[in-house]
Design goal:
It is a single chain. This protein starts with 5 loop residues before the first helix and ends with a strand. The chain is mainly beta. The radius of gyration is 19 Å and the shape is globular. The strands form two sheets. Strands 1, 4, 5, 6, 7 and 8 form a six-stranded antiparallel β-sheet that branches. A three-stranded antiparallel β-sheet has the order 3-2-9, with no helix packed on it. The protein has one domain (about 25-125). A hairpin with a 7-residue loop joins β7 (about 80-90) and β8. It has one helix at about 5-25; strands at about 25-30, 35-40, 45-50, 55-60, 60-65, 70-75, 80-90, 95-105, 120-125.
Length: about 130
């Protein structure tokens, strides 16, 4: 039978947490500007879009609902931005359909679930 010391386990958890915090820094910002790009897959044209974090906007047939934007400092790339979003597809004849619920990330090193829209891709550029 293994006997565990609660105080020692707690110290290990605190030490691991302190190490993690020293390696990366997180900050959250609500109502800060968020810079996105809307990529038209057919024409390959990118359209910049600036919105406020924590708001809802309509872009073409998509209703984009954003959360707080988080900044993560990466030792290789510098600032990496994370933006939780929900995207609903608003079609004239039907109820809105949830197209995406997840997090957009500004770096390809941190993969996120792809947005499955037939015509548009949404790319997170940065949060101010």
């Amino acid at each position: 039978m293994v006997k565990r010391e609660k105080g020692r386990d707690k110290q290990r958890v605190i030490a691991i947490g302190a190490l993690f915090c020293s390696l990366s820094y997180f900050s959250a910002s609500l109502a800060a500007p968020v810079n996105l790009e809307i990529l038209n897959k057919v024409s390959a044209k990118k359209t910049p879009l600036q919105i406020e974090a924590g708001t809802t906007v309509m872009v073409h047939d998509m209703r984009i609902i954003t959360g707080k934007c988080y900044t993560h400092l990466d030792s290789f790339e510098g600032a990496v931005y994370h933006l939780p979003v929900r995207i609903w597809l608003d079609q004239d004849s039907e109820e809105p359909v949830e197209l995406y619920a997840g997090e957009l990330v500004s770096s390809p090193r941190y993969p996120s679930k792809p947005i499955e829209h037939s015509l548009y891709d949404i790319i997170l550029v940065e949060c101010d």
